Amino acid sequence: MNIYTKRCDIDPRVLDNVSRFLRQYGINEFFYGITTKVIPPYSHQFKNLKRRIPADMIKCRYGVYSSERVLRFRHLYLQYFAADDSAYFRPHPMGMSIWADPDYSGPKGQRFAELMAEHQFCSRGVWHLPTSYHPDWLCAFVYFSDLPREELLARLQPHEAEIETQLMMFASYFNEQFISQINPISNFNCLSERSLTILRLTAEGYSSEELAAKLCITESGVNYHLDRLKELLNAKNRVQLISMGYSLGLLS
What we know:
By secondary structure, this protein is an alpha+beta fold. It has two domains: 6-187, Beta-Lactamase (2-Layer Sandwich); 193-247, Arc Repressor Mutant, subunit A (Orthogonal Bundle). 51% of the residues lie in helices and 14% in strands. The chain is built from 13 helices and six strands. Strands 1-3-2-6-5-4 form a six-stranded mixed β-sheet, sandwiched between helices. The radius of gyration is 20 Å and the shape is elongated. It starts with 5 loop residues before the first strand and ends in a 5-residue tail after the last helix.
């Protein structure tokens, strides 16, 4: 199984604290990342972030997750099931959502039930939180439980406010530590490594001429990348481009 996603280099003690906090409410596993809204209009220009189709999302480069078990489930779900799961494309509200069972019929429904049983999951959901990086982005804790859906809901609802407050703190820490890896633009391969390199070196003060010499490309090639970056990030000039790079977590 070729899994693209790597775990961010998180302190194991922090990961253990998050896992222990969630387990007391019946959540056994989680995957954290920054995702994008599915409701237009969008204020960014990246096609695969607008579509958010499983074939793009499966190539997520980094995440914060509780175990390899949840990573394997995520990969198999996106590869074989998400495209036909209406819950995946439904615009979930901010805060807590517990997903209903997917409306698969026939053999696919049976295979999904087997996948859940194999990973010892009975129910799943997502907790969406706001982020200041971009108006179309959301922090997302995708979570899994060995409890049935109604029982998990009964465990979570009485403590919803305090859980959300704590998740906001965890999300803030993850973003502060790993935004250059988990921002959706770089995490979902919206920009080439060459474009990201040119952006970083421009932020360090290199001119187009210096960049061309350093990267062994033409100066017009450098300017093409810069013009394309300005278009994609809605920047009017290099100064604004660099500012946008920092605000979106592309530069650290």
